[in-house]
Amino acid sequence: MTKPDILTILQNKIQHISMDNSTNILVGPIKLPVNLDGETVTFQWYSWLKVTDDELIQAEGAAATELLIQRLSSMNLADGQQSSVLVYGDFQHSDDALIRMHSICHTGDIFGSKRCDCGFQLHQSMKMIAEHGSGALFYLANHEGRGIGLFSKAMAYLLQEEGYDTVEANLELGFADDSRDYRDAISVLQRLRSKPVTLITNNPKKLEALRAAGMNTVKRVPLWGDVSVFNEKYLRTKVVRSGHLEAVPDAGYLEGRVAK
After folding, report:
1. Are the CB atoms for 149 and 173 separated by under 8 Å?
2. In terms of CB atoms within 10 Å, which of 22, 36, 196, 201 comes out highest?
3. pTM: predicted TM-score of the whole model, two decimal places
């Protein structure tokens, strides 16, 4: 399948709204299937970005879209938000504790989007931590779209609707496959607990990155679920392109395998 070039995809999906000394750049609409009380309802999602850069304000048409793409990866749009952590039980002193380093997902966590499994993972990891008796969920606000920011994620979604997978879309927009930085979260974790932790993740690379950043962890717990026709390609890309371990039925709590 031949994919259209990204300018062709994005040109008619971007609008410029002139304001006093600034412009709001509106991206969308994007189809967003949402789970509402067990029923899938499809919404149209938009994201907007306020810009004060004179070149972006004055540019028009295809040139404006091309300039925006050129500037996108250097805008640091994932910054400017705040992270938090939910702690359960005697996290500081317990012998065994679960943690989840959860990247914010505006569409999945808030709206219940079925394009990903993030909302499911957020709530399921909270249940796992509570059932375990001790743990913490770190909600990392500057990790939207694997660190590219909400507005950039909206543009990546438009590319995905035309055949690009998650990794390809991020790369086409000038980002790395995964731009997340865990150093701030690790500093908080080290203040809250010095004993080892068990990480809730399907991603061995995340475990390696966290260990490299100084996290004291000894084990990994998988978390799979909420598979649907809307996120099958997204989940497959996680396994094939990003190295996530596949779920293995009845293989035990800590087991998994990389798909061939």
Report:
1. no
2. 201
3. 0.75
Domains of the chain and CATH, by start: 80-258 (3.40.50.10990)
Q: State the virtual CA torsion across 203, 209, 214, 216 in degrees, nearest 10.
A: 20
Q: What average pLDDT does this structure show over 197-209?
A: 84
For 138, the token pair is: 């770190």
Predicted pLDDT at 259: 34
The answer, yes or no, to whether residue 26 has pLDDT greater than 70, is: yes
Q: Centre a 10 Å sphere on the Cβ of residue 257 and count the other Cβ atoms it contains.
A: 11
Are the C-beta atoms of residues 181 and 206 closer than 8 Å to each other? no
Residues labelled as active-site residues: 178, 180
H-helix segments, the chain: 6-11, 54-58, 61-72, 118-132, 144-147, 150-160, 166-172, 183-192, 204-212, 232-240
